[in-house]
Structures are given as structure tokens and as C-alpha cells.
Amino acid sequence: MSKPQIEKSDLVNYVSKNINNKKQIAEFFYYWMSLNIEYDYDLLKKIRSKRLSKLEQDQSSNTDYIFKEKKAVCIGYSTLFQEFLSAFDIESEIIVGYAKTEENPTLELEVDTDFLHAWNALKINNNWILVDVTWAKQFEGAITDFYFDIDPERNILTHYPNDSKWQLLKNPISISDFNKLPYIHSFYFQTGFPKTPIITSDSKYYYFEFKNNPNKNWLVKLTYSLDNLNYKSVFPEYIKNKDGFTYKFSKERVPNNSIIRMDLTDFNEEKQMMIPYEKVAFFNL
Q1: Which pLDDT tens digit goes with each residue over 123-145?
Q2: Residue 101 DSSP code
Q3: Which of 96, 164, 206, 257 is least enclosed, having the fewest CB within 10 Å?
Q4: Are 97 and 223 members of one domain?
């Protein structure tokens, strides 16, 4: 015997009876959607290949269709999330812009339509916060809370809104400055690294400065490429600092305009085990 179909109204009624705090209400729908709405990669392929029919375009943001089929792309996630929030008088906006990913560590707004993206801003206790329900699961091995109430300083590493006010930064940045920022996967911060690495240089060397990670097991590997396809090892010099460490390498060793890729390895000294995690961050020199 099949289980009865849950309706949107059932979820709203459940939350109405059990949750009063508006931020917790938003979190409930963030997690429920992450658990129950799959990312629609087939639809994404059609969008990118310009083979989307008018019906499919309409369905991509039709919340009844999305809820029934349990699959969506970013505009669908954002629209359904906003509908749930509206039922509880939580003010929200759908933010449209671009996403920086490991495929595309720099953006050209005129041509990079494949990297258009949508997420949400919602107003809680008179303060706007940023939420990306899509990315809570799409690029993660498991559902993460990283993309709920994202620190704007971290969000701007990967999300560039068309309207700069939704950067929620004291001093919004241009697309040129955005492209100078690294792409950093949420995994980097979730391992315990507190800050984005600082990149400096002088006439001879580049310096990658990291703050200490409370979890001492993480090892960093740096490689470089000119095409984001073929990578070669950097072989940097390791320098221990008071509150972190620095990787130093010669400019003669790495060509101008290279992309530096950072991989992490979890080294368990006690068990003598190493678990590598590739493509955690990309930096444009």
C-alpha cells in the first residue's frame, strides 16, 4: 500500500503547529527541501544546450510541479522556498546572478550564461540573511548548513548577484574584483580553516598565507595550470608562522595568469591513513 501524498499545505500546517521562531521555520524548509527535492541535472543540460521547451521553462519555476515531481534547478528551489516563507509572512527575495564554480573560476557576464544562478535573501529580526537551498546539496557529499545564513564575506567568493545590494557587503565589489577572489568550496571552511588564504607577492615570490586550522590533520597541496585542465606541482617552501603557515614559491616556476588549485588531504597520524580531497579551491594569479 503506497504512502499518502504529502501536500504543501500539510507541511505548512505542521510547521504552524510546531515551530514559532521564524528563523527556525526557514531552517525547517531549507532542510526539508534539501532532503526531498533532487537537483534536476537533465533539465540543466537542456537549459545549457538551449533545448528547453516553453512548457519546461514554465515548469522550472512552477512550485506545484516542482513539489509533485520533487526535482528542480536553482530557480525552482528559490521559488518554492520563497512560497513556503510567504506562508509565514517571512519577507524574502529571489536573488538572480552568477555562480563561480571549479569549472569556471572567472566569470564573463556577457558569455557565461551557463553559470546563471538563483538563491534567496530573507529578512529575520529586521536583518537580511542569505540562503542557497540549491547548493545545500548539489555540490555536497551530504546536506550542509553552510548555505543557510551564509556569511556575506564567504558568499561573495562564489555568488555574484546582478544587483550589488544583495552582496550584503558594507562595500560592494565589481565583477573585476569578484574575479580576483578565489573560488573556495564550503568544505574548506567546514574542515576548520577560519579564514580565506591571503595571497601576496614581491618581485620574486608568491606567498599563500593560511591561518591555523584547529584540526591539525589537514595537509595542503598546491598545483598550477594555464587551462584549468592540466596541472603541475608547485613544490612550495613551507614556512611556519605564529598563528598559521605560509607557502612560498618562485614566480619563475609558475607562469603569469596561472590558476592555482588547492587540494586537501586528511592525514590521520595515529591510523597512518590519508584521505585526499581534490579541487577545494582555485586562485587566479
Answers
A1: 999 999 999 999 998 766 677 89
A2: B
A3: 257
A4: no
